[in-house]
Design brief:
About 60% of the residues lie in helices and about 10% in strands. By secondary structure, it is α+β, with helices and mostly antiparallel strands. The strands form 7 sheets. Strands 6-7-21-8-17-11-12 form a 7-stranded mixed sheet, sandwiched between helices.
């Protein structure tokens, strides 16, 4: 894999930043996080005692909502030591931390590591280390040094602290912990609900909540794009997103009705969305080397929401199912879970129906090459979960059996083996065991075995205008069977997803005002040793997604810069990826997919010719394409790296061919499910088993075409949403917790586009601080700042001017200051240097003070030694004087005369003390007895108090439940009132439309009356004309003789006949007007009937004030019936009058009689319609009566609810009184207990005083005894001395006395 673009700064910038900064002033703020460790090995030495749990430290802290971390002085090594730390690339650990010890000419430096070793490097080959302030940063986009080493180090330190989620600008980076973390419970759902990104730590719930809040608040579709390698945790994070959305959003279709059973209440839409996932995992997930539950397809789950945030439906799109896993399983892997679950969990009846009795995993060729089980996972339990999910989703037992029949048929197809018929021919034949397996597969698929074998071994192909049988080798038969098995499984998977979508679709009940949150779970960028057509499709998809992210990222940057009104030229980095995308998808000039589709329909095209064609089209014409040497393939330059693709087998993979003879058999299967799967392969014009070409019918669509169409549809949907990005990272290949493979993670960061996003961020102003934070942290770097209030923008500009920063590295907005990458690191280094200088001065002052204290103490000790020495010398001089020794011995004898009296007094004192001791002993016993009684009473009171507390808690719980019930009833009552008001409004609208119809009906009736009058007048004129004709006939009889008058009479007759024709036309016009009035009347009647039907459907939802609606409906019906009766009578009278008039007409006016007959027929039709309308009104009246009865039932239910509510209120008041009394009793008991405790304390104090006094008395008595004994000894010694010196006195002084 090639290296991505380096993210380290230029050498000149590094040389400037590595220079020692000048100290200016001291900062009041302190660092906020730990410094980088020496390398990327795990950090073992600074874990706290609570680190044994997997829960992150911020979960157990009360300071979770604080956005700042505190600096750990133990871990922080990049603090104030003055060392210039750098990152150096290492093949094993990716990067190792060291510090610069010397700068050499030609921009070279000497770097020393913790091990003591040193290395000489170019300045361009090292990356700078971020200050300690940025350690364990929640958002890596805020790092002042945006380089690969800093990103890896930040992710590792957080991962070792169980912080698996980290922001990287718009990305949320999620690292698989490979161990359960207690961070997905309901408490976390409540913790993140409604919280902004700034108020919470990185978490997948935070992303889901942000999408949900924006959907509800802004009414805009949202999308969450989850990508990553296999085993990185895409599926688990997708499930957590769906879990969170189902928890915070309630479906409006899930509201339990009064007549709904509890079982139906549990099968709601939210649970169906959650339970759809086990079905998709069973049919679309498999065990791989990296992941025990790897999704082998991509999916885009759209969850529909109403504007109020309630779930209204869901829909699942799927992409790129790995069909090859059905027929080929690598060692240490498994095929799709459903095969193993079915063989382990199906009961005997189902196994018999699937023809699996007595067969196990080792009996099927498609399964025996991989693992049989997954450690710690029970396929039988997973099967039970699958069946339970099918029931929750509403799949019938017949549908389940049909699905499992196709899955079992795939297994039996895998056991069909072909061999060469003879050495003389290549024709293949089936073994006896193969025929048995094929017979079982055909029985499950609902087709006959013989035509299937014939279509498999001797398929018919069209050569010109004739059909010929084709010879099939054993390899071709095996290929055809594998292709059929893959096709059956893919179509079954697609049909299964369609069935799930039908059950999750609530389109008939939702409105166009709904919006959705789409969750995209798709494989990330892949680079293997052998990259084929599947990798190109996946990498092409990720190229489009990365382009979408780049464009969206800088659209947000542009909006941020526009809001802050800073100078900035917009750059669309999505165009950087367009050449590679055009190279893959463009039809003109022909791209890779178009060239592949073109060669797929060419009969003589091969993979080699396709590769040569690509080389001739693109080699040396674009830097994104180059030929692969010596392998057959090409090299594409993607955003992540250059990838070498091998084109072997691409034409077959793109065509995805199926045997047409077999697909037509399956399309005509007796099994409806199987025939529906292959419905696109049926040909009604051909014979049942005659081969045909799918290309001619327009059904041939290559895999590349389908993938481009799906991706275009997906990108169209994503562009209509507000996206959120999640990148999942695999920490190691051993599936072990706490192991962080830095090179592996670095490769994934490149492939996932995280480093690409950081590269783009560096071109702008990635670091930004609001004015208050900027001023509080860096104001100390400026001298003589004004004292007093300064505006935030004014203060920031003043600080920036005094710091003398280049105008090109910062921008001052309205509320924030924006910096280029690395500028904040320079400011931090200046601040650290200032702190080092001030701390050095402070330490010097403190150390001087401490040394002076020590010196003063030594002087005091010297003076004290001299005083003691002088006193000791005086004492020794006195000890050598004999007179002093004599005085010392005689001094005790001077008070011998007072000894007896003192001894007597002491004896009396001793007796008094003995008496007092006895009294104290009795008092002590009494106090001890009282103390025991008090402790017993306290224990009883505590038991009573505990019982009262338990009772109070029970009553409080009952009170809470009653309050919740009252709130629910209040909400239902409010909803009923709102619905009743809506029905009243609709009823008023219906009454208004009815009144308008009646007015129009009156108008039409008047027009009919006028038409009748005109007809009557015309009839009178007609009679007059008939009379004139008779007179003229008489005149003609009399005038036969008079030939001169014949011509004049003929002219008069013709004029009269023309007048009759005019009258006839007038009658015809009146008839047409009358028919038009009839049609309009019929239209109004149909409108009224539609309104009555609408009123009927609305009355089904009414639950209050039904009596008023009933009275209004009855009045409307009475008025309608009366109007209908009046209209009917009027029309009948008109019909009778017309019939009487038409009976008197003359035969000579035949045309007028024909018109009258037609009018009679129309009037009869109108009468029939009126009778039908009367019958319909009678039916509506009976329905209204039924509705009245239902309404009475609803009113009774409402009355019951009201009475129950009043009863609950009474109970609540009683419980309140009880709680108040219990509370008073508890307070009284607390007061009594407090008093007892006070008395107990006083008694204990008295007891302690008495014991202390008793001890003092005993000590005094002991001292008196000792003094008395000493006095006795002194007196005895004095007597002995007196007896010794008495002879001397008697001999010397006795004669003088």
């Amino acid at each position: 894999m090639s290296q991505a673009m380096p993210l380290s700064p230029s050498a000149q910038q590094k040389q400037t930043r590595f220079a020692t900064p000048n100290a200016v002033s001291f900062s009041r703020n302190q660092s906020q996080s730990q410094s980088p460790a020496s390398n990327f090995s795990p950090i073992p030495s600074h874990r706290t005692a609570s680190s044994s749990t997997f829960a992150p430290q911020f979960v157990k802290s009360e300071e979770f909502r604080r956005s700042e971390d505190r600096v750990s002085a133990i871990e922080g090594e990049n603090d104030f030591s003055g060392k210039r730390y750098v990152w150096v690339k290492d093949p094993e650990k990716a990067f190792v931390r060291g510090w610069i010890v010397a700068e050499l000419p030609q921009q070279r430096v000497v770097v020393q590591f913790d091990s003591g070793s040193q290395i000489e490097l170019d300045l361009e080959d090292v990356d700078m280390v971020n200050p300690a302030k940025f350690d364990k940063a929640d958002d890596m986009a805020e790092l002042t040094h945006l380089n690969e080493a800093s990103v890896i180090h930040n992710l590792q330190t957080r991962y070792q602290s169980d912080l698996i989620y980290t922001y990287s600008g718009l990305f949320l980076v999620a690292i698989n912990p490979y161990c359960p973390l207690p961070i997905y419970g309901n408490d976390y759902v409540r913790m993140y609900k409604g919280q902004t990104r700034e108020d919470s730590r990185p978490h997948i719930f935070a992303v889901a909540d942000a999408a949900f809040r924006r959907l509800v608040e802004e009414g805009e579709n949202q999308s969450i794009l989850v990508t990553g390698e296999s085993g990185a945790g895409k599926t688990e994070n997708t499930k957590k997103v769906i879990q969170y959305l189902a928890a915070v959003a309630t479906s409006d279709l899930d509201t339990p009705l009064a007549n709904r059973s509890p079982a139906k209440q549990l099968s709601n839409l939210s649970q169906q969305i959650l339970r759809a996932n086990p079905i998709l995992e069973s049919f679309g997930n498999a065990q791989t080397v990296r992941n025990n539950n790897s999704s082998r397809f991509g999916k885009f789950i759209r969850i529909q929401f109403t504007r109020s945030g309630q779930i209204a439906g869901a829909f699942i799109d799927w992409y790129l199912l790995e069909k090859s896993r059905v027929v080929k399983v690598s060692q240490h892997e498994r095929s799709y879970h459903v095969f193993y679950q079915m063989l382990a969990g199906a009961d005997k009846r189902l196994r018999d129906s699937l023809l699996l009795s007595g067969l196990d995993i080792e009996d099927f060729a498609y399964l025996r090459g991989g693992n049989d089980t997954i450690g710690g996972v029970s396929d039988r339990d997973e099967w039970n979960h699958l069946i339970e999910a099918f029931h929750v989703m509403g799949f019938t037992e017949q549908e389940q059996n049909a699905i499992f029949r196709t899955i079992a048929a795939v297994l039996h197809i895998g056991n069909v083996a072909a061999k060469q018929e003879s050495r003389a021919t290549d024709q293949a034949m089936l073994t006896a065991e193969a025929k048995a397996s094929l017979d079982r597969a055909c029985r499950l698929l609902g087709v006959q075995t013989e035509p299937f074998i014939k279509g498999l071994l001797h398929p018919k192909v069209k050569a010109g205008r004739e059909w010929v049988e084709k010879v099939q080798t054993a390899e071709q038969v095996r290929f055809a069977l594998d292709a059929l098995a893959k096709g059956i499984y893919e179509r079954e998977f697609g049909d299964l997803v369609s069935r799930i979508n039908k059950r999750l679709d609530r389109g008939g009940l939702t409105s166009d005002d709904n919006h959705f949150i789409g969750v995209l779970d798709i494989a990330g960028f892949e680079i293997f040793e052998n990259n084929s057509f599947e990798q190109l499709c996946i990498n092409y998809t990720n190229e489009k997604l990365q382009q979408f992210f780049n464009h969206y990222m800088f659209v947000l940057e542009q909006e941020e810069y526009a809001r802050e009104q800073i100078e900035w030229q917009f750059i669309d980095f999505g165009k950087d990826l367009q050449p590679t995308i055009d190279l893959i998808e463009l039809p003109n000039p022909i791209g890779i997919f178009s060239c592949l589709d073109e060669d797929s329909v060419m009969p003589k095209a091969t993979d080699k010719s396709f590769t040569d064609k690509l080389h001739s089209l693109w080699e040396k014409k674009t830097p994104k394409y180059s030929a692969a040497r010596p392998r057959q393939g090409f090299i594409l330059t993607h955003y992540a790296a250059e990838v070498e693709y091998s084109t072997e087998g691409w034409l077959e993979k793109n065509k995805d061919p199926l045997n047409d003879n077999l697909t037509r058999l399956l399309a005509a299967s007796k099994d409806d499910h199987v025939s529906n799967l292959f419905s696109d392969c049926v040909d009604e014009s051909d014979e049942l088993y005659s081969p045909r070409s799918r290309v001619k019918k327009g059904l041939f669509r290559t895999v590349a075409q389908r993938h481009k169409e799906q991706l275009t549809s997906l990108m169209r949907q994503l562009h209509s949403t507000q996206p959120h990005f999640v990148r999942c990272i695999l920490p190691n290949h051993k599936k072990k917790a706490k192991q962080f493979n830095a090179p592996l993670v670095l490769d994934q960061l490149r492939c996932n586009g995280v480093l690409e996003g950081i590269r783009i961020a560096r071109t702008g102003f990635p670091n930004r601080l609001n004015f208050a934070e900027f001023r509080s942290r860096y104001e100390v770097l400026c001298q003589n700042m004004p004292i007093g209030y300064l505006g935030g923008q004014e203060a920031a500009k003043m600080i920036l001017e005094r710091l003398k920063l280049d105008r090109s590295v910062f921008r001052v907005g309205i509320t924030k200051v924006f910096f280029r990458a690395g500028v904040l690191a320079d400011l931090e280094e200046q601040r650290d240097a200032l702190i080092r200088e001030i701390m050095a001065r402070f330490q010097s002052v403190a150390r001087g003070f401490m040394q002076r204290r020590i010196a003063y103490k030594q002087l005091y000790r010297t003076e004290a030694t001299r005083v003691i020495q002088r006193n000791l010398n005086v004492y020794l001089d006195l000890q050598s004087n004999p007179w002093w020794r004599l005085f010392v011995r005689l001094r005790p004898l001077l008070g011998a005369t007072r000894t007896a009296s003192e001894v007597k007094k002491r004896d009396e004192r001793i007796d008094q003390l003995h008496e007092k001791m006895k009294q104290d002993q009795l008092e002590r016993q009494r106090v001890e007895e009282e103390r025991r009684r008090a402790e017993l009473n306290v224990h009883q009171i505590q038991q009573t108090l505990e019982a009262e507390r338990a009772l109070a808690l029970d009553k409080e719980e009952i009170f809470k439940r009653l309050q919740l019930r009252e709130n629910e009833l209040s909400e239902k009552l409010a909803e009923a009132i709102v619905e009743q008001e809506e029905l009243e409004d609709q009823l008023d609208a219906a009454v208004d439309s009815k009144r308008q119809g009646e007015e129009e009906l009156v108008t039409r009736r008047e027009q009919v009356i006028q038409a009748g009058q005109i007809i009557t007048r015309l009839e009178a004129e007609k009679k007059d004309l008939q009379k004139q004709v008779e007179d003229l006939n008489d005149d003609l009889v009399h005038a036969e003789r008079d030939t001169s008058k014949v011509d004049g009479l003929d002219q008069e007759v013709r004029s009269l006949r023309s007048q009759l024709g005019v009258k006839d036309r007038k009658i015809h016009e009146l008839e047409s007007n009358h028919s038009q009035a009839d049609r309009e009347k019929d239209t109004k009647l149909s409108t009224l009937e539609a309104e009555m039907r609408s009123l009927k459907s609305q009355l089904l939802q009414k639950d209050r004030r039904a009596d008023e609606l009933e009275r209004k409906l009855e009045s409307i019906q009475r008025s309608t019936n009366e109007e209908k009766e009046r209209n009917t009578n009027s029309y009948e009278s008109q019909i009778r009058s017309l019939n009487s008039q038409l009976g008197t007409k003359d035969r000579k006016l035949g045309d007028l009689e024909d018109l009258v007959v037609k009018k009679d027929q129309r009037v009869q039709d109108v009468e029939a319609r009126l009778l039908a309308a009367n019958k319909e009104l009678t039916g509506l009246r009976s329905q209204v009566q039924d509705l009245e009865a239902d309404n009475d039932d609803l009113q009774a239910q409402f009355d019951n609810l009201s009475s129950s509510k009043q009863h609950h209120e009474t109970v609540l008041r009683q419980k309140d009184n009880e709680i108040a009394s219990v509370w008073r009793q508890w307070q009284d008991s607390e007061t009594q207990m407090h008093k007892l405790q006070t008395e107990n304390k006083s008694l204990k104090q008295r007891h302690e005083d008495t014991a202390r006094k008793h001890g003092d008395v005993e000590r005094e008595m002991e001292e008196l005894r000792q003094k008395r004994a000493q006095m006795d000894r002194d007196a005895l010694e004095a007597r002995k001395k007196l007896e010794g010196i008495m002879p001397f006195f008697n001999s010397h002084f006795g004669s003088n006395m």
